[in-house]
Design a protein that fits this description.
3 domains, DNA_bind_recomb_sf, DNA recombination, Hect, E3 ligase catalytic domain fold, Rossmann fold, DNA-binding, Resolvase-like_N_sf
């Protein structure tokens, strides 16, 4: 051992746990609520819900140190999504208002079957000092390792939800194949359900259906049929005095009015949200002939379908090919009127003459006339020629063009990182957090009355949350600009990969680069690129000249 160093006996003193519980616990009991949910509205499930509510109310009220904060219960709601769970959302709001400290619930699957939703909600509640206790899994989300365990268990619950969805889907299809099904008459004009759940004709509503078919076969348009029904004060199936053309069209194409039934017209595309879409061959359909009493003869029904098809062919708008039709033109859904904000529609002028011309025109102008919007049409060939000019201008100066754009975004990011606003907010957050800690210490030492502490603590917590929200909004702007920078790099690479300038319009290039076109005037256009960049182009258009002069 070196001279001057003396080995002394060292005694280890265990550290004291100085972590403080939520300061509110020194003043009051823990405010506890419960959340219950059943998936169907059946009598059996309703009784189960009542039992759960009674159990939690009794359990919380009998627990020493707990204060009853209510029971929130959703009935007949699936756990796969949050949007329709009214009581669940009301409970979260109560937590945000500081009325709840702890939530009790039966299990993760009762709370949320979507893993992402579950974790997000738990994190949000944890950040505002609210815990969730899952009885079956014995997890308290304020525990140190709770999030890891919770993520594993909620993923399992999500898989269970997927399996249930698949089993339900299989069961429905099996019943369809066996002919075991019933059709609901809710919002279904013309029919009622008898005690055996069979469709029977509603004589009064049936007259309305017959009238609609008769008038359509006699050459009246949907608009004319709608006007006639409203003029005669005939109500819709929901009791409304105003008819929609889409509702009349649905009646005219519904095969159930001629006694048949096509099953599984729609399918569920997301088992978590329950979102549905038209079945376009992704799943089998089942057609049942002469399933119930008809209101319309098969002959008249087929005549109506034939008329509808002829009209669709005439206007290039086949119902079964609607998506393809809407997206087959590069400018569809891309041109916006700078005057009223409506989209432009493609139109053909002088379709049978040699002077046939394809133009894009404001929908407000088309539907309501010049008095509502005075924007004139833009020639299709001109639009394409202008885009070619814009692309070539950017291509020839691409290095300088994209560098200037990227530099501007980076300047904004750097300015945001150092801006006085963020620094001030961060200082305030630090300052208020220090005040809260000092307030808690004084309360522990007994230097403050309970009422004084409670008032000061709540004021500080509210102020702290306001500054945190402000800080989050500033951070969001940073993310927005970073995303624009990434898009800019992708668009730059796309342009650099081209062989050179273009001599004619290219659908693929347009689709990859352009978010929208804003028509300021028919000869002044703004091209909004997908990276946020805007290029204005003004030009002169001479009468009789196609494209640009």
């Amino acid at each position: 051992m070196k001279e001057g160093f003396i080995l002394k006996k060292i005694i280890s003193i265990a550290a004291r746990n100085l972590s403080f519980p939520d300061s509110g616990q020194f003043l009051r009991k823990t405010r506890v609520c419960a959340y219950c949910r059943v998936s169907t509205g059946s009598l059996k499930q309703s009784e189960s819900l009542e039992t759960q509510i009674s159990y939690y109310e009794r359990h919380i009220k009998n627990k020493s140190g707990w204060e009853y904060a209510g029971v929130f219960a959703d009935e007949g709601i699936s756990g796969t999504g949050m949007l329709k769970r009214t009581e669940f959302n009301r409970m979260i709001r109560a937590c945000e208002l500081g009325k709840v400290d702890l939530i009790m619930t039966k299990s993760i699957s009762r709370f949320a079957r979507n893993s992402a939703d579950c974790i997000d909600v738990v994190r949000h509640l944890k950040n505002i000092g609210v815990g969730v206790y899952f009885e079956r899994e014995n997890i308290n989300t304020l525990g140190a390792d709770s999030e890891l365990v919770l993520s594993i268990l909620s993923s399992i619950a999500q898989d269970e939800s997927r399996n249930i969805s698949e089993n339900v889907k299989w069961g429905i299809q099996k019943r369809f194949r066996e002919g075991k099904f019933y059709i609901t008459t809710k919002r279904f004009l013309g029919y009622d359900l008898n005690n055996e759940k069979q469709l029977t004709v509603n004589s009064e509503e049936g007259k309305i259906v017959k009238r609609i078919y008769r008038e359509y076969l006699n050459g009246r348009s949907l608009k004319e049929i709608k006007s006639g029904l409203e003029k005669d004060n005939i109500k819709t199936v929901t009791g409304n005095r105003v008819w929609n053309e889409s509702a009349i069209k649905y009646i005219l194409q519904n095969e159930k009015y001629c006694g048949d039934a096509v099953l599984q017209k729609t399918i569920t595309v997301d088992y978590l949200t329950g979102k549905r879409k038209k079945n376009k061959g992704e799943a089998p359909k089942y057609e049942v002939k002469e399933h119930h009493e008809a209101i319309i003869s098969k002959e008249d029904f087929l005549k109506v379908q034939n008329i509808r098809k002829i009209k669709a062919l005439k206007y290039g708008n086949l119902p079964e090919n609607r998506d393809k039709y809407q997206n087959r033109y590069a400018f569809s859904g891309k041109i916006i009127c700078g005057n009223c904000g409506a989209f432009f529609s493609r139109r053909t002028w002088n379709s049978k003459a040699k002077s046939k011309q394809i133009v894009w025109q404001c929908r407000t102008y088309i539907n309501e006339g010049k008095s509502s919007c005075c924007m004139k049409a833009v020639d299709d060939i001109t639009l394409k020629a202008v885009f070619v000019r814009v692309f070539n201008r950017i291509y020839e100066a691409k290095e300088d063009f994209f560098k200037r754009f990227a530099d501007n975004i980076e300047k904004v990011l750097k300015r945001n990182e150092k801006c006085e606003d963020i620094l001030r907010v961060d200082r305030e957050i630090e300052n208020i957090s220090g005040k809260i800690k000092e307030l808690v210490r004084k309360q522990i030492k007994g230097e403050l009355e309970e009422s004084t502490f409670d008032k000061r603590y709540r004021n500080l917590k509210d102020t702290l949350q306001e500054f945190k929200n402000r800080r989050n909004s500033l951070s969001y702007n940073d993310e927005k600009y970073k995303k624009l920078l990434e898009r800019n790099k992708r668009i730059k690479k796309f342009i650099e990969d081209r062989d050179g300038i273009i001599t004619e319009f290219d659908d693929d290039i347009f689709e990859n680069l352009i978010e929208k076109i804003v028509a300021i005037t028919p000869t002044h256009l703004e091209f909004h690129f997908k990276n946020g960049m805007v290029v204005e182009e003004e030009f002169i258009k001479k009468k009789g000249i196609k494209g640009l002069q």
